[in-house]
Amino acid sequence: MRALVAGSGPPLLFVHGFPLSHQMWLPQIEYFQSRYTVIAPDLRGFGDSDISNGIVTMEQHAQDLNSLLQALKVEDPVSYCGLSMGGYIAWEFWKHFADRLHALILCDTRADSDSEEGVNNRLKMADLVLRHGPEAISTAMIPNLLSESSQQKQAQLSENLISMIEATSSEGIAASQKGMAARSDFSNQIKNIRTPTLFIVGGEDRLTPPEVMKGMSTLVPDSKYFEVRDVGHMAPMEAPAAVNQAMSEFLSACSNI
């Protein structure tokens, strides 16, 4: 697993969404590296990391992250920030490595598993990409990733996302898509989280709407909830200043606990 490591201080782990790479976190990496050791990996099958065929489960991704932290000799508990698929992986990381967690930041994600329709859609996408490559999905994904406002006012974001998606291997996309289709339902378990937790959501997120994120926040004891107006599923990219400030305030409060 390849990872960008920058800065010094307490470890802050950024786990990207599907089907992207660590580059989605560049505004956060730049902002936080002056105070934290920022670790931003490319998950298995994405970016510059090795590809696995077949299926890569969310648990496997979590195990990979633990192995990465061991390889980097990170012994202090980490603040884990994951978006979308990075959030699905977060639940598995919490389940298996809770003692490694200092704080959790969950962006535009959900705790439940897919419906039958959702599973079928993922498997169809996996098949489509294996047949025709990532170009078959890259442009079509944008309306679900960015709000209309972001698409109109920040055209570069669409271009950046499309280039990230099209740089991803078909096998990597299909393997994690199948892994997400098979992921566990954590909706009844998150009430047991005792790690300080922040939920961040774009107010116009179509995939994981505010009511979904707010609902999770009511279940996780003492968690915080932050909604960013006029942005979609990629809140950290669409509104980096607002998201960075919310994260910074939350992490500062956690360090005082």
Can you describe what's shown?
With 257 residues, the protein is α/β, with parallel strands linked by helices. Helices cover 47% and strands 15% of the residues. It is built from 11 helices and 7 strands. It has a 7-stranded mixed β-sheet, sandwiched between helices. Strand 4, helix 3 and strand 5 form a beta-alpha-beta unit. Helix 1 crosses helix 11 and helix 4 runs antiparallel to helix 8. The protein is globular and about 50 Å long. The two termini are 32 Å apart. The model has no long low-confidence stretch (mean pLDDT 96).
- Uncertain segments: none
Report the biggest beta sheet as strand number plus sense, adding barrel if it closes.
7 strands, mixed
Helical fraction equals 40-55%
Going across the biggest sheet, name each strand in turn: 1-3-2-4-5-6-7
Structural shape: globular
Radius of gyration: 17 Å
How many angstroms separate the termini?
32 Å
Structure characteristics:
47% helix, seven-stranded mixed β-sheet, globular, 257 residues, 11 helices, alpha/beta
